[in-house]
Write a structure and sequence with these properties.
5 strands, mainly beta, about 0% helix, elongated, five-stranded mixed β-barrel
């Protein structure tokens, strides 16, 4: 078949110079530094800052969240004072009314809060007993 009668091949002398779109390998496009809305990129903006306070806070800002401890009751009884020894050997003096009778040697998990004022419960760090439960 003469050359003039053959169908044109893409990229050949009689075909188009660019390959067909489905044959073009995908290329990664780099993101543009400025958004299309004309705003600068986030990295070029200043960080937000807090305004100076207008006065002292109305409520306490350092409220302690309850902590959970686990260990063995080393001084039990009917309460309201108990002593808990954690696995790392720290003693905690627990104060909590109406928490039941807990025998010495019981393994428990306790939720504690701030220490009550004017209470003495023996050795260890004094904390308020919010919740106590036996663990197996």
């Amino acid at each position: 078949m003469p050359t003039s009668e053959r169908p044109a091949e893409p990229g050949g002398p009689t075909g188009s110079a660019a390959p067909a779109p489905e044959q073009t390998p995908p290329t990664a496009t780099a993101p543009t530094p400025a958004a299309s809305s004309g705003r600068p990129p986030l990295s070029a903006t200043d960080l937000p800052t807090l305004r100076p306070p207008t006065g002292p806070p109305r409520h306490p800002t350092d409220q302690l969240k309850p902590n959970v401890l686990a260990g063995r009751i080393s001084h039990g009884g009917g309460g309201p004072c108990y002593t808990l020894v954690t696995d790392d050997g720290q003693e905690h003096a627990l104060y909590g009314r109406d928490k039941g009778a807990w025998p010495t040697g019981a393994w428990v998990r306790v939720t504690v809060g701030p220490a009550p004022e004017g209470v003495e419960c023996g050795p260890g760090r004094l904390v308020g007993l919010l919740r106590i439960e036996r663990v197996a």
